[in-house]
Write a structure and sequence with these properties.
The protein contains 11 helices and 6 strands. It is α+β, with helices and mostly antiparallel strands and 325 residues long.
Length: 325
């Protein structure tokens, strides 16, 4: 049987569906390539990291949070003492964004969101520095270690749990009436005693307000205030009189005559003390001459002996003084 050479509608419809599907796939590939910069011209930069936890080859490179390239290669460096350069990242950057990456740009490893994929992010540079050329190294900035943050948060949560446990134990003891706070909360006798104390305090305050009592009169009677005012006024007058240079007190405060006389007396006394200390004159000799002291001492001793003898034998000294006619 001879096959017909004309196209049927079913065949044409299948062909149109295939062509439409190929067109959709082509448009999708083009759009995906544009969004991922797969068809743009690229140049290479290098970055060194101590570690790249979560970052893989083919990972995204961002500039100011926007997709700018991919991590084409991650290599281990030889072991040395510089632990900040354990890995070398080869970055494929979109050529159209070359002006954004300069010598003052900073690269860092960050996470998209809190738990998203790891990306290598580069901050845009400023016009005061030059553009990084092919094969240059991107400076690395400070990186926030999310694992350390999570560890600190875990420690804080642990402390909060311990604090909650302690608070539960404390409140449980209070509810059970343990300790002073527990007694205050649960002990009725303590409440009653406190209530009685407050009543007595109120009674005392009422007694203080009694106008017939001492404290009540101090609070209500202006007589004491008036007396205090008069005392203060008298004291002010006294101070004014003293400052007026009149009277003995005023003269003592303001007149220099008394001061001059006291200075003269002091100088005279000082001269007298110097004269006595020098050993000159009778008084000075009395103070400093040992011979004169010994003679006076002997004279006093002899006179004491004579007086004692007179008391014991008065006739011896009065003989011949009485005559009989």
């Amino acid at each position: 049987m001879k096959r017909s050479s004309t196209l049927t509608w079913d065949q044409l419809r299948v062909g149109l569906v295939i062509i439409l599907a190929l067109g959709v796939v082509g448009v999708a590939v083009v759009k995906l390539g544009e969004s991922a910069n797969l068809f743009s011209r690229r140049y290479t930069l290098i970055a060194y990291l101590p570690d790249a936890n979560g970052l893989k080859e083919g990972g995204s490179v961002m500039i100011a949070g926007q997709l700018a390239g991919t991590v084409s290669k991650i290599d281990f460096l030889p072991v040395d003492n510089d632990t900040t350069r354990n890995l070398r990242l080869t970055l494929a950057i979109d050529e159209n964004l070359r002006e954004q990456i300069r010598h003052d740009s900073k690269g860092k490893l960050r996470t998209l969101g809190l738990l998203g994929d790891k990306v290598f992010d580069i901050t845009p540079g400023t016009p005061r520095t030059t553009v990084l050329a092919e094969g240059d190294t991107v400076p690395i900035g400070l990186v926030l270690d999310y694992e350390a943050v999570i560890a600190q948060a875990s420690s804080a949560v642990t402390d909060m749990v311990a604090l909650t446990r302690d608070m539960r134990a404390l409140t449980g003891g209070i509810v059970k009436g343990e300790g002073t706070l527990g007694q205050l909360v649960t002990n009725r006798a303590l409440y009653d005693e406190l209530n009685r104390t407050l009543r007595r305090a109120n009674g005392m305050l009422a007694a203080f307000q009694n106008p017939d009592g001492t404290i009540g009169r101090m609070l209500n009677d202006p007589m004491l205030y008036n007396k205090l005012t008069n005392v203060i006024a008298s004291t002010d007058s006294l101070v004014t009189s003293v400052n007026s240079s009149k009277g003995t007190a005023g003269l003592m405060l303001h007149d220099t005559t008394l001061y001059s006389n006291l200075v003269g007396i002091t100088r005279g006394a000082d001269s007298l003390m110097k004269a006595l200390s020098s050993g000159k004159g009778t008084a000075g000799r009395l103070l400093t001459d040992q011979t004169l002291y010994d003679q006076l001492n002997k004279l006093v001793t002899d006179l004491s002996a004579i007086l004692a003898d007179v008391r014991n034998n008065p006739g011896k000294y009065t003989k011949g003084l009485v005559k009989v006619f």
